Amino acid sequence: MSKKRIALIFSSLAGLFLLCACIFWCFFQNEDHRFSTFASSFFRQELSGNTLNLHYTLKDPSAFDMEDLPVSLGTYNSDAQGLCVSLENMLCQMDGFDRSRLSSDNRLTYDILYDSLSASLKTAPFLLYEEPLSPLTGMQSQLPILLSEYPFYDRQDVKDYLTLLTQVPDYFTSILAFEKEKADAGLLLPSFCIDTLAEECRAFRNTGDDCYLYDAFESRLEDLHLSEKEQCSVLEQHRQAMEESVFPAYSMLADGMSALKAKAVNEKGLSGLPKGKEYYQALAAAETGSFRSVSELKELTVRQMNEDLTGIQKLYQDSEKDASPSPSSDRFRSQGYALADSNPASILTTLAGKLKDDFPSPPSVSVTVKYVQESLEEYISPAFYMIPPIDDARENVIYINRGHMPDDLTLFTTLAHEGYPGHLYQTTYYQATDPHPVRSLLNYGGYTEGWATYAEMLSWYYAPIPKKDAALLQKNSSLILGLYALADIGIHYEGWSLPETVVFFQSYGITDVPVIRDIYERIVADPANYLKYYIGYVEFLELKKDAVRSWGKDFSQKRFHREVLETGPASFDLLRDYLL
User: Fold this and answer.
1) Tens digit of pLDDT for each residue in 18-61?
2) CA nearest to 257, candidates 333, 339, 326, 176
3) How far apart are CA 5 and CA 390, in angstroms?
4) Any idea of the CA torsion for 278, 282, 288, 289, to the nearest 10 degrees?
5) pLDDT of residue 318
6) Dihedral sign of CA atoms 372, 373, 374, 376 in order
7) DSSP string, 511-543
8) What are the residue boundaries of the structural domains of the chain, listed by start?
9) What are the backbone angles phi and psi of residue 367, rounded to the nearest 5°?
10) Is 105 in contact with 111 (CB distance < 8 Å)?
11) How far is CA 340 from the centre of its chain?
């Protein structure tokens, strides 16, 4: 055969190979393109109706084809049937994609989106069971914080913000309409929750000229370089909106809920409602991201608590006569430990420096620590992290509630939970992997709060205290969270009354009845909230055990943490599928 003939054959084969490769590439590219278009459309649709969510999610909406949208706080919807139909349609559309033809990144996004929509479909029939006004975590608590941190990138943002303030009455009116439907269906909050809610709303209303929204607004204007005339004008508009819209809206909400109080027929947990146990099962799965039944969650909790108790007993066997101290024992109190430098910025720097051996390097970002207004400390969570926009995570904010910080060690572990290696680290590391924007809409509280609790538990060993003390305090902290998780299940699934809850906690040495009553009321008001922290944390421990068995000698703490972080928020079923 001539060299020319060989060359021609080779050329033809090469051309055929390139043609097949192009067809193969186009075949897969088309499915990837279709799915990416679908996911992006869903992302835009979900954000377009709520300016607050849009502004917190995107710094530059124009880059995502989301410009000139109406300014709106949205409304609270009670159409469970419509929600079910919408979710079913979404899942039907997703069934139309060939998952096997998607890229690895899109396949992960597909699996997580499908999982999230499926979980939402299970809770959708129970839409009226949801509670937008839970003490500490409801919209009445979150809205002022969200407004105070609303970023001003340009002058239009100021105009939009002022418009949002004028919409607060209509937004609260829609929530009241939702609550009235709940009341008519016999699903209203317990009366003691309504009392707490009304008190919280009136406390905010009574801050008046001292309300932190005034200072927050003025400080955010500084970078816009307004003229003196413009500044005076917007400050007056802001004051007017606060006095004529925001404060009256909070008074209206307090009065409206108080007027409904007579219709509060259930003073216990979800088990006291029709189909309440069925809803709790679906809610627990959605909140924790765990595949386990409620009974299995209880078994998992008891097993971890027994491990912690055994660990505590072993630590005391050699040095104490009493090897079974109760969780409320003075020996577990962190008071008395004073850090050499208790400045939050210094603590965060210390914590970030502890990452290098067991965690992948964090992105370079800034963080500002702010404090909850003193008059509102009673009604706000102990601490929280403000999630930055997905297109610019360089600036981060952590709020600390000093009313819940009795000592330096509590501050240290709280900053680990909210900062490093907790929420701030997990969020900014994950965002740096450039995931599809649609994933920012999906709520996996078991992953995010479980990771932050896992980080908090590790931080006891980072603290500048004796290692034995660190181990005791960490295991006791885990044990107490386990008690709260068991109480959550007991109250909402097994129907515990307050007296039964008192007996439960007293069996573990916690005997202060007013404290137990406060715990009971908080759990009643926010079903499955404690579960997502504790179960999420324990599921990470279980996942790590599985990784040790599966990876063998290839296991390392850094590899485990990196793969969890790069997979991102998901259910624990999916995490197992992708990691092991």
Assistant:
1) 444 444 544 556 999 999 999 999 999 999 999 999 999 999 99
2) 176
3) 57
4) 150
5) 63
6) negative
7) --HHHHHHHHHHHHHSTTHHHHHHHHHHHHHHH
8) 3-47+78-127, 134-267, 280-579
9) -140, 135
10) no
11) 32
Which H/E stretch holds residue 554? none
CA distance linking residue 378 with residue 136, whole number of Å: 9
CA distance 452 to 329: 26
Question: 416 near 427, Cβ under 8 Å?
Answer: no
**Rounded distance between C-alpha atoms, residue 129 and residue 123, angstroms:** 9
Shortest CA distance to 398 belongs to which of 359, 442, 345, 453? 345
Please report how many Cα atoms fall inside a 13 Å half-sphere around the Cα of residue 135, on the Cβ side: 24
Nearest to residue 105, comparing CAs of 572, 580, 567?
567
Starting at the edge strand found earlier in the chain, the sheet holding 383-386 runs 366-371, 395-400, 383-386
Q: Is the pTM of this model over 0.90?
A: yes
Q: What is the pLDDT of residues 163-214, one digit of tens each?
A: 999 999 999 999 999 999 999 999 999 999 999 999 999 999 999 999 999 9
Q: Which residues make beta-bridge pairs with 400?
A: 371, 383
pLDDT digits (tens, 9 = 90+) for 132-169: 999 888 999 999 999 999 999 999 999 999 999 999 99
The answer to whether 446 touches 289, Cβ cutoff 8 Å, is yes
Tokens of 237: 């508009």
Find the radius of gyration of the CA atoms of the chain.
26
Residue whose structure tokens are 């538990």: 457
Compute φ and ψ for 383, nearest 5 degrees.
-165, 160
Q: Residue 421, preceding bond cis, omega within 30 degrees?
A: yes
Residue count (the chain) = 580
Sheet strands (E) in 344-487: 366-371, 383-386, 395-400
For residue 220 the two structure tokens come to 């955010």
Residue carrying structure tokens 């404690």: 530
Strand partners, 398: 369, 385
DSSP 214-274: HHHHHHHHGGG---HHHHHHHHHHHHHHIIIIIHHHHHHHHHHHHHHGGG----S-GGGST
The DSSP secondary structure of 351-376, one letter per residue, reads HHHT-TTTSPPPP--EEEEEE--GGG
Please tell me the number of Cα atoms within 13 Å of 151 on its side-chain side.
18
Greater confidence (500 vs 381) lies with 500
* Four-residue CA torsion sign, 255, 175, 120, 99: negative
Cα 472 to Cα 236: distance, rounded to the nearest angstrom: 55
Q: What are phi and psi of 216, to 5 degrees?
A: -60, -40
Q: How far is CA 371 from CA 75, 200, 263, 406, in A?
A: 30, 18, 37, 15
* Rounded Cα distance, 130 and 345, in Å: 37
Other CB atoms within a 10 A radius of the CB of residue 158 amount to: 21
